[in-house]
Every structure is written in C-alpha cells, then in structure tokens.
Specification:
Elements lengths: L4 E3 L6 H10 L1 E3 L7 H8 L3 E6 L6 H5 L6 E4 L9 H6 L3 E3 L6 H16 L2 H9 L2 H5 L13 E5 L3 H12 L3 E5 L10 E2 L3 H7 L2 E4 L13 H7 L4 E4 L8 H10 L4 E4 L10 H4 L4 E3 L8 H21 L14
Parallel strand pairs: 1-2, 1-3, 3-4, 4-5, 6-7, 6-9, 7-8, 9-10, 10-11, 11-12
C-alpha cells in the first residue's frame, strides 16, 4: 500500500520532517523553483498538509481535491479557514497545551520588563550611562498592588493568571462568557475590564471577531498608569491607536511580543521608549517548538492510522 501524501509548503523543524518522512510520502513544494506548479503536480496524491503559517483558504483547498487533514504548527490557527475546511469534511488540528507554560512564562517576563523598564535599564548599562551619568532613574511603576485584566482566559490565560497570583496581582478577566469553576472576577465587556484594571494582558486569538478589539476607547479606559501586554495576536490591537496612546500618555507603557504585520513593526512604535518589543518569541525554545512539531506529526499519524486526530480544533470536531 502506498504511503499517504503530505504536502509541506514551507520548511519545518527537523523533528517534523524526520517524523513525517518515516510514515508518509512528502511533497516539499518549498524546494521547487515553482511551488504552485509543484502543488498542482502533487495535488492528486496529497491527503494531508503540515502547515507553518501558510494561508489555508478556499483557493488553497481548491487545489487539493483529496485533502483530509490540515495539521497546523501553532496553537493559533487564524491562518487556516477552519469553517471552510469543516464544510468540506477536512480535519484541522493545532498544537495546544505543549506551549502553554512557555508562553505564560514569557508573558510574565514581558510584564516585568515593561513595568520595571528592564530593557531600558540594560541599555543604560551597555551604553555607558551608568558610569557616565549615574544610577538608572527610578521606575514610575511597580507590580505591587496592580490589578491584572486578562483578555482570553483559555489554557494560556489561566497559566498566566496562576503565575500572576504568585506575584500578588488581583486577577480579572473577559471572554465570550463567564467560566464555570473560575474564582477570578468576570467582566462582560472589554471596556469594563479595562476600566477596572490598570494592567491588560491580551491572550486572544486572531481573526475577525477580535480584530482591533483594543482601540483608542479601550486604551483610554485603561488609563495613564495603564500597562498593555500582548502575547496573543497582533491583529487584536489597533497599532495606530496604541502609538498615539503611548505618545500622549493615555497609557503608561506597552509590552508586545506580537504585531499586526509581522515581521514589520511600525517605526513610530520602535521609536517609543515606553514600548518594549520582542520578536514573537512566546513559545520560542527548542524544547517547546520540538514538542509542537511532534504533535503535528502525531496528529497526522493518528489520523491515517485511526481516523481520529489528537487535537482537533473546535470547528472540525471528531465524528463519533
């Protein structure tokens, strides 16, 4: 029996490639000088796809008439039109859980960096200012006594909340609905959350429902002592409104690991001293990225061995 064909449109980690090569016939179209032609030539043989940031929309699906499963590398899958996949009976999987702790650790690190201005303090030392000008200026903000509002209290949001509790922060949250068994204070609107809290942690996925949720109105509600941290998706924030809010003192500072048009970051944002920026490194350790890769492989192997996926997304549930 021939091996199922798996499309790999972009290079992926060695753990993924090695794992897939043992079980499947791979169509690594990124190696072709004409990837579109390579996809067309492989189309009839492709039954699965291992996806890393590739846009999977109607046009993509139309090219692959025998596609059964899309295994996405990452917990977020706004690059995949899961509803269209579901309508065609195509399974979509992602890689939750294995990156939860890594992202939560990064979120707390970014929060501390932003509140205590640690990036600027390091630049003070490296640039010779400590020796030339003396001690780094006292930071105007502290974690002590802060109220943390979390937008998106999913797996990662809960992990962040547990860590934040250890720092003595009071936890509030907003999401589509109040969660059973959660003791944190729930707010039925994002504006209500921002008005109550002085620190807003964004852990929301991308997509139309969350696009530019955080705009000038929300930032104004957060207030002049407000700290915004985004560890979710860049599209959740209106970056022009954020730049204005940081420039005018509408909020105190922002720590950002994600941006709307990565890897392009607005120069006006980079120029602001009260913006701490990271290059989307929330889950970027060898340990965690390899675990994510193994789950991509595991989902594909499970699907073709048993007809069931390990981590299906909600739009494409398992058939009983």
């Amino acid at each position: 029996m021939s091996k199922p064909g798996i499309l790999v449109p972009r290079p992926m980690r060695d753990v993924v490639m090695r794992g897939l090569e043992k079980r499947f016939a791979l169509y690594k179209t990124f190696e072709s000088e004409d990837p579109d032609r390579a996809i067309a030539e492989a189309a009839d043989h492709v039954r699965g796809a291992a996806i890393l940031g590739q846009k999977v929309d109607v046009a993509f699906l139309d090219k692959l008439p025998n596609l059964e499963i899309v295994a996405n590398f990452g917990v977020g899958y706004d690059n995949v039109d899961a509803h269209d996949c579901s309508a065609r009976g195509i399974m979509v999987t992602n890689t939750p859980d294995v990156l939860t702790d890594e992202v939560a650790d990064t979120a707390l690190g970014l929060l501390i960096m932003t509140v205590r201005e640690l990036s600027a303090a390091e630049r003070w030392v490296r640039g010779g200012s400590w020796a030339a000008k003396g001690a780094f200026p006292l930071t105007k903000t502290t974690l002590i006594g802060r109220k943390l509002g979390i937008l998106g209290l999913g797996r990662i949001g809960k992990a962040i909340a547990r860590r934040a509790e250890a720092f003595g922060l009071e936890i509030h949250y907003h999401g589509r609905s109040r969660q059973a068994g959660v003791a944190y204070t729930y707010h039925d609107t994002l504006s209500g959350l921002a008005q109550t809290c002085d620190t807003l942690m964004l852990v929301a996925p991308g997509g139309e429902q969350t696009h530019h949720m955080v705009d000038a109105t929300i930032l104004k509600a957060l207030g002049p002592d407000g700290i915004l941290i985004n560890i979710g998706r860049g599209s959740v924030v209106n970056e022009l409104d954020l730049i204005e809010a940081l420039s005018s003192g509408t909020i105190h500072a922002a720590g950002l690991d994600v941006f709307e048009h990565e890897p392009n970051v607005p120069q006006a944002l980079l120029d602001l001293e009260n913006a701490v920026v990271l290059p989307h490194v929330g889950s970027a350790s060898v340990h965690t990225r390899d675990a994510m890769g193994q789950l991509v492989v595991g989902n594909l192997v499970s699907w073709f061995d048993t007809g069931r996926a390990i981590t299906p997304v909600s739009e494409t549930p398992q058939k009983e």
